[in-house]
Design a protein that fits this description.
The complex is a heterodimer of chains A (332) and B (234).
Chain A: H1 2-36, H2 43-60, H3 72-101, H4 106-128, E1 143-146, E2 155-158, H5 159-181, H6 183-193, H7 195-200, H8 205-230, H9 237-251, H10 257-275, H11 279-282, H12 309-321
Antiparallel strand pairs in A: 1-2
Helix pairs in contact in A: 1-5, 1-8, 1-9, 1-10, 2-3, 2-4, 2-8, 2-9, 3-4, 3-8, 5-6, 5-8, 9-10, 9-12
Chain B: E1 4-13, E2 16-26, E3 31-35, H1 42-49, E4 55-62, E5 65-66, H2 72-77, E6 80-83, H3 95-102, H4 110-120, H5 122-126, H6 137-149, E7 155-159, H7 167-182, E8 186-190, H8 194-199, E9 203-208, E10 211-217, H9 218-223, H10 225-231
Parallel strand pairs in B: 3-8, 3-9, 6-7, 7-8
Antiparallel strand pairs in B: 1-2, 1-4, 4-5, 9-10
The chains are: A mainly alpha (332), B alpha/beta (234).
Bound molecules: adenosine-5'-diphosphate and magnesium ion.
């Protein structure tokens, strides 16, 4: 039983955490692609930027969360979401929109977004330094241990993990309702389907573009912050996020927000299962194994430090065998 | 005062001139039909009117007011509707959502108008929850026209609404165009099925190489032996 709890803690919980983060990042990538038709490589840095703004606000008002009984970083999230959205819209106006108006090819926008990546990384590093910093300033992370009867090992969940699950579920439901029920959400899908016809229908496509950045920027802030809250804020966060969120968006079929959610969880769980130490699950069987089998202490498919290869291989496999993604998306 | 006037319109794509002085006038209660060989600039002319193309010379007026080079968005606000030749639906949106997008600028009237469109194009009612991309060619054309009608336009531009349809569907669409026109909507329509289209036309424009070759009533063009020989296949 202890082994099952171990599996739950290190696979189910850890996979859901990673999956939620990737899902929220991938939704942004996929929405931006649907509306603006380019791969936004600066997206992982928008996640970092969001988390960085939360860090700044938390350092400024370290006790703001206490009256609400929530981590200060969580209370600062709405403000950081607004600021990151503004930054995203601003970046679009200054860097991407002039290129779009020139009618450039998508690859030019991709390169521009690489430029934005470098710029954002430099800026964040300039202000945050290069080290890791906890988003718990003057406070301690709450850890919940759920005892399971008859088992010594508890199920462990941290406060940021619980907040992450709640936020992810709420965001996905809200996005679904927005896209299928609201006039602007339907217009967003219409523009993704056929931008010229959207314009010919009187849809204000500029407004839809702005809205896309606001949604993508807000989700990026949520994902980046909750990840940093669970681990720590690092200025090079995006380095570890970029590949998996693109893999997730492509696995899910680019242009499908719910495919991106599925893709996020698929990549997240694949990564977690790949670094999981299977030896632990086999340990109870040790006595019944023939004596010539020596159970190694570590039986993981890939070492934790190499887990980035997992999304890489998923990406390659999908691009070779199913370039439209698991759910039919637009081929890039 | 004419509903729609195009005077000596010049324009094209990226410096290449396609329209070399086109004139067109239709009154509020009229159907105008543009015919002519492939590549004559018929679609280009509709795009020019609808602001999808920069006009380099000439003028376009709606009820006497200059609308030359206004954006499509502004023109939709002024009551112009446009159904392109291709890609004229939102394929992944349901039929109902396609119609709602047509009323994007007038959400308050959407519910009432949707009912009218369903009465007007009955096959759409039972398919209203289906993605429009899954419909047959004729039904897609109905979705496309329905979407444009949802904005209650006073002038409707249709680019080859019967292209690729069976004769049965073609006549059905022409009947609908007549009904729309009778309800007070001016129609300017490009058609490959030239003879049938000119039969319902108040005005006909024969375009070739970006210029008017013949301009007359639909009936007069049908009766003109030269038009028949050169443009209507004898
Ligand atoms: N988007 C475009 N860019 C450049 N040239 C175009 C474009 N669309 C059409 N053309 C050219 O303009 C000419 C007129 O096209 P069009 O107006 O579509 O003719 P039609 O009378 O068959 O509708 C053709 O020579 C065509 O190749
Ligand atoms: Mg044409």
């Amino acid at each position: 039983m202890n082994e099952l709890i171990y599996f739950f803690n290190y696979v189910v919980v850890a996979g859901s955490v990673t999956g939620s983060i990737y899902a929220m990042g991938a939704i942004g990538v996929t929405l931006i692609y649907s509306i603006l038709r380019f791969a936004h490589f600066a997206h992982a840095d928008m996640m970092t930027l969001g988390a960085f703004l939360v860090l700044l606000l938390t350092l400024l008002f370290p006790h703001a969360g206490e009256p609400l009984g929530l981590p200060t970083a969580v209370v600062m999230l709405p403000i950081a979401m607004v600021l990151t959205s503004l930054a995203a819209v601003g970046i679009d106006r200054v860097f991407y929109q002039p290129l779009r108006n020139h009618g450039v090819k998508p690859i030019v926008l991709v390169i521009a977004s690489l430029g934005v990546t470098l710029m954002l990384q430099g800026l964040i590093r300039l202000f945050s330094g290069t080290g890791a910093q906890s988003l718990y300033v003057d406070a301690r992370k709450e850890i919940f241990r759920l005892e399971v009867p008859g088992v010594t090992r508890p199920i462990i969940l941290t406060e940021p993990q619980i907040i992450l699950f709640v936020v992810t579920i709420a965001s996905v439901i809200a996005l679904h309702l927005f896209l299928t029920r609201s006039r602007l959400g339907k217009a967003m899908r219409a523009m993704s389907d056929n931008p010229d016809l959207a314009r010919a229908s009187g849809i204000n496509t500029q407004l839809i573009v702005t809205l896309t950045w606001v949604i993508a920027g807000s989700l990026a802030t949520l994902a980046g912050t909750l990840l940093s809250l669970d681990v720590a804020f690092k200025p090079d966060l995006s380095f570890f996020l970029l590949l998996p969120i693109f893999a997730a968006a492509i696995v899910g079929g680019v242009g499908h927000p719910f495919g991106a959610v599925a893709g996020g969880f698929l990549v997240g769980f694949a990564e977690t299962l790949a670094v999981f130490n299977w030896s632990v699950l086999l340990r109870p069987l040790r006595d019944s194994l023939p004596s010539w089998i020596e159970l190694p202490n570590n039986l993981a498919l890939v070492g934790t430090e190499y887990k980035i290869v997992v999304p890489f291989f998923i990406l390659i496999a999908v691009l070779i065998w199913r370039p439209t993604g698991l759910f039919k998306g637009k081929v890039i | 005062m004419p509903l729609l006037e195009a005077i000596d319109v010049h324009g094209g794509y990226g410096g290449m001139n396609i329209l070399n002085g086109v004139d067109m006038t239709i009154e509020a209660d009229e159907i105008g039909v543009i015919v002519g060989p492939n590549g004559a600039g018929k679609s280009t002319m509709l795009k020019a009117i609808f602001g999808l193309l920069t006009i380099t010379g000439g003028e376009i007026r709606l009820r006497g007011e200059a609308i030359t080079n206004l954006s499509p968005h502004k023109l939709v606000e002024r009551g112009m509707g446009f159904v392109p030749q291709e890609k004229n639906i939102f394929p992944s949106l349901s039929v109902e959502e396609n119609l709602e997008m047509g009323a994007f600028l007038k959400p308050a009237t959407a519910t009432r108008l949707k009912q009218q469109i369903y009465e007007f194009f009955p096959p759409l009612k039972e398919k209203r929850r289906q993605p429009a991309g899954e419909l047959s060619g004729g039904q897609r054309q109905m979705v496309a026209m329905g979407r444009a009608l949802m904005n209650e336009p006073s002038v409707l531009l249709l680019d080859e609404p019967t292209a690729g349809l069976s004769p049965l569907y073609m006549n059905e669409i022409f009947e609908r165009v007549k009904t729309i026109n009778a309800a007070g909507v001016g129609v300017l329509m490009v058609e490959q099925n030239a003879k049938q289209a000119l039969r319902i036309a108040d005005k006909g424009f024969v375009l070739a190489a970006g210029q008017n070759r013949f301009t007359d009533t639909g009936q007069a063009l049908l009766d003109d032996p030269e038009v028949a020989r050169s443009f209507l296949g004898g």
